[in-house]
Write a structure and sequence with these properties.
Chain lengths: 197, 231
């Protein structure tokens, strides 16, 4: 149980995908202008990341490894993820057309979201078991949601504030993200060890 | 024709202007050699995928084109991965999962979809080279700022013949380095200030992008601003 809590805390705070590993920056900067769409995107990423970790784990350990096909890892993982994203896209389109409209072009872009591919590769690299993989995927997604939610809340405030002209739009978003990353440095391994004993 | 090549370097620089492919760019920009290795990998994959997509554009059905492009890109990434693992194991270890993550680099899929699928072979090759070199240059600028200020060194390839260990130390900064640039937040801050600098430069001089000699002055001017802010 402790390991699962450890994995969750690690990927949400200590190794937050966006703020310490730079995975998933494109949607993070692109979809963080409004809180609503940011949260929608965050939940879509949580879902896709958990599913992707689970499915890629099964593909790698039950299909590729026994047959000595590890070198096909990159190709198969990206295909599995692309299929999953397509699935999520269809589901969202069916259940919530407004959300589908809001996420617009960024939903297909989850395919090229480095965070999803990243978690699949990290799971293999760290030799996680199936349940651990599921948890790390979920935690990675939650970390993404947390970061993009904070970011979009800050960016909504920017609309009413005066910002020097060259910094308007993307530059200030990057600098905000940089300062957020600085704040997230407070979460480190020592903190985790203290928490879990 | 030559415009297809130069546009990727300046006017439509993938990193600074279109802002694509950020994830690997910021993560590997801690050392100059990582940036060069990453750039080389991206140029190779971009070239391979643009050539293949441009040649196959009439055979790939419209509906499944994205998965088809992804498979093409993933194959080239696997090649890069294997070559790097075999010949430059240290670099491969430094870049870690980011070599495999070239596959989700938006620049490559973006060029396949937006350019190579609509243009002929020579144009696609020029576009790939321009975009790849533009990406590498952008990466080089970020990594230079980050490594020089963050660690006070410039890491390049070691050359045994002349006894060069691959690391240039910069006297004063190496003992009083701005550690923040070496951390994750440094990359984001540098990127933000570069974007702001470009916006400022662009508004001051609309036709700045046409002047090819303007690139040289960018890194120095940029780092000054960053230093002031860091302090």
């Amino acid at each position: 149980m402790m390991t699962f809590i450890g994995i969750m805390l690690t990927y949400i705070f200590i190794e937050n995908f966006i703020l310490t590993k730079f995975l998933g920056l494109c949607p993070f900067i692109g979809v963080s202008k409004k809180v609503d769409s940011a949260v929608g995107m965050g939940f879509a990423v949580i879902f896709v990341m958990s599913m992707a970790s689970l499915v890629t784990w099964m593909v790698f350990h039950w299909l590729l490894e026994p047959n000595g096909l590890e070198f096909l890892q990159t190709v198969t993982f990206i295909l599995v993820i692309a299929t999953l994203v397509q699935l999520v896209e269809m589901i969202i389109q069916k259940i919530s057309p407004p959300l589908y409209k809001a996420l617009g072009i960024y939903l297909p872009l989850i395919t090229t979201n480095c965070a999803v591919m990243g978690i699949a590769l990290i799971n293999v690299q760290k030799n996680y078991g199936i349940i651990e993989s599921l948890f790390s995927g979920m935690a990675g997604g939650i970390g993404f949601l947390l970061a993009i939610f904070l970011m979009s809340s800050i960016r909504e405030k920017f609309e009413t504030e005066w910002i020097p002209k060259p910094f308007r739009g993307m530059p200030i978003a990057f600098i905000t993200a940089g300062l957020m990353a600085l704040a997230f440095m407070a979460f480190d391994k020592a903190l985790l060890n203290n928490l879990l004993g | 024709m030559i415009r297809e090549f130069t546009k990727g370097i300046l006017k439509e620089n993938p990193l600074f202007i279109i802002v694509l492919g950020l994830c690997p760019a910021l993560a590997v920009s801690t050392e100059v050699i990582n940036a060069l290795g990453m750039g080389a990998g991206v140029i190779f994959v971009l070239l391979g995928s643009n050539i293949s997509v441009s040649l196959l554009k009439n055979f790939i059905p419209e509906k499944v084109r994205i998965p088809a492009y992804i498979v093409i890109i993933a194959s080239f990434v696997s090649i890069v991965e294997m070559v790097m693992k075999a010949y430059t194991p240290d670099l491969y270890k430094n870049l870690g999962i980011f070599v495999s993550l070239i596959v989700v680099n938006c620049v490559i899929l973006g060029r396949a979809e937006a350019f190579a699928s609509k243009n002929n072979l020579p144009r696609s090759v020029l576009d790939a080279l321009g975009m790849g070199i533009g990406f590498t240059l952008g990466l080089l600028i970020i990594s230079l700022i980050r490594e020089v200020l963050g660690a006070g060194s410039i890491t390049l390839f070691p050359i045994k013949a002349i006894g060069f260990n691959g690391k240039i130390m910069i006297p004063w900064i190496s003992s009083y380095s701005f550690k923040v640039f070496a951390f994750a937040s440094g990359a984001l801050l540098v990127m933000g200030y570069i974007k702001a600098f470009i916006a400022w430069y662009g508004s001051r001089k609309i036709d700045a992008a046409k002047e090819s000699d303007s690139t040289g002055s960018k890194p120095e001017a940029k780092s000054n601003i960053s230093v002031e802010q860091a302090e």
